[in-house]
Amino acid sequence: MFATPPLPPPAIPAPVIQEEVRYYAIEGRNEPELVAQMNTKGYASGSDRYWAYTSPQLTWNFDVKDVGSSCVLVDPKVSLTITTTLPSWTPPPGTSATVVAKWHELGRAMRHHEGEHAEIARTMAGALVALMREHHADVSCDHLNAFLQAKGKVIMQRADAAGIRLDAQTRHGASEGVALRW
């Protein structure tokens, strides 16, 4: 009697990741003016405004196909678009060097904090690829599809929770310097 060797895993490419930074212009020459502008023009999410915001959009898809006595993944793909929104400010003539220096510190802190959110999204995309690489075949297509969908949702929920935890731990980046201290 001959045993059928297991099917080789399908080629599951690394996630396709696109990153974009969008800027909104603010004006002012002192802290109250800059804060007021960011509070008015910052990224809107519901009734909240954020001075800086990272928005990951993750898509993943695959088909399943019966091959002999197994079901296998067909054409699996993971795509991630990360859009980060940041303020842009050009100091008007006569703005104090102290205000300009503190603005640069704030900008570095915002980019760092939003980079942490982007890294959570990249990790999530990688985890979805790893999931499909590990679980690429099953005895039933219905089971394989349901298993991957359920585990994928768990990965995405963990990523959402990690972003919420990051903001809670850092007070939306305030403990990392996302605050104007004059």
In short:
The chain has 182 residues and is an alpha+beta fold. The chain has helices at 31-41, 97-134, 141-170, and strands spanning 16-26, 43-45, 48-50, 53-67, 70-89, 137-138.
Features:
182 residues; four-stranded mixed β-sheet; two-stranded antiparallel ribbon; elongated
What report would you give on this structure?
The protein is of the alpha+beta class. It has 3 helices and 6 strands, in the order E-H-E-E-E-E-H-E-H. Strands 1, 4, 5 and 6 form a 4-stranded mixed β-sheet that branches. Strands 2-3 form a two-stranded antiparallel ribbon. Helix 2 packs antiparallel against helix 3. The model has no long low-confidence stretch (mean pLDDT 92).
Number of separate helices: 3
What is the typical, i.e. mean, pLDDT? Answer: 92
Largest sheet data = 4 strands, mixed
How much helical structure, as a percent, in the residues? 40-55%
Question: What is the oligomeric state here?
Answer: single chain
Alpha carbon gap, first and last residue: 81 Å
Tell me the series of helices and strands, N- to C-terminal.
EHEEEEHEH
Whole-angstrom Rg: 23 Å
Report the strand count: 6
